[in-house]
């Protein structure tokens, strides 16, 4: 079948193979074999099992890798003797390791049971986070952060795979945003917990250092999540909490994506698809946006607590005056965008571009406002940076090279010599938001142009809209890429 359906850059008569005739006549499995009510009940069950744990796991992972920012204001730099740019390198080495281990990690993920694989990896990196509490110097921290990055690189692609295996393309944005809000939600929960650790440390100055307590907290939470993942997460074929009929319905339901389902585990490597990837303009859009969006993210994530402290807040105030309202605002914005994009197709890129305008405004104001006054105005301008996480959620999970390089380099944008104002770093972040906006606009136009082109080709072949939908599903099940499948439509 894959050899007879036309690619987007080919023209010719409508293909008439037996496989195509079968699907046009309704002789193969389609989403219509189950009632809408059955699908609604199944979707509700899937959401109840998957989303809470994915939220918890993803948020814990974010808290783990960014916990170093909080530990920085609670003494880790002083106790381990960090000097100059050594603190910056703790983030840079994390993402360099993340980058190097991404390919082998993804290969292993496709060869193994997805849920079991993620569970083992989470337990291992939980142990690493615990071990950070015993670090004595820069070398110890660099080794541990390297191992942590190598292990954590697996969670985002695993969650992308799980989301694609369980949900239709129309449902992806809202579900991804729901578990994406965990970045903010868990930071609120862990931030308040860290506040409690800091209070106790103030009351017992000779006791456990607060930055060590933070490592114990995050490490234990990660191990707990890893144990839960063993029993719950996976693709429809792998989980135990669905009946065989429910598994079949879950697989058939996502056929409408036209990107393939979990009917068969395809682990073979196809060089033709690799070559097609480098021919596809999407690859370069993904890389550019991922890189540009994570450069400021790497900088602000690493230095957020230090920036808040530069406004005149104490170490403890950076948590409940800085982190908590920042992440609450982030959650509200993420959920708002999720509802809008679900109700109004075609708004995804527009909402991301709006987010970038807000970030650019806040960052530029922050760079040029007086640094010795207007404390709360500067606080408000920095709050606007939470909007910048939205484009990263949509794009960084697709091209991880750009994600890792951006975060690794971004951590070096704020230099110790620029403290406490960090004007150079703040200005650079604002410029990057402007570049990202232009890239988003171009990318959206490309999708619109491709969809119109494909619609014209399908119409010229005399294929109805309903038949095009069903042919798109068949092509995807034959492992045809979205670039080759002229019945596939891009979501923007």
Automatic annotation (TrEMBL):
Keywords: Membrane, Transmembrane, Transmembrane helix, Transport. It is found in: Membrane. One of its GO terms (molecular function) is transmembrane transporter activity. It holds the Pfam family MFS_1. It comes from the Eukaryota. The keyword Transmembrane helix applies. The chain crosses the membrane at residues 117-135, 177-197, 209-233, 284-307, 319-342, 348-369, 381-403, 423-447. The keyword Ubl conjugation does not apply. GO terms for cellular component: membrane. It is a multi-pass membrane protein. This is Major facilitator superfamily transporter. The lineage of its organism: Eukaryota, Fungi, Dikarya, Ascomycota, Pezizomycotina.
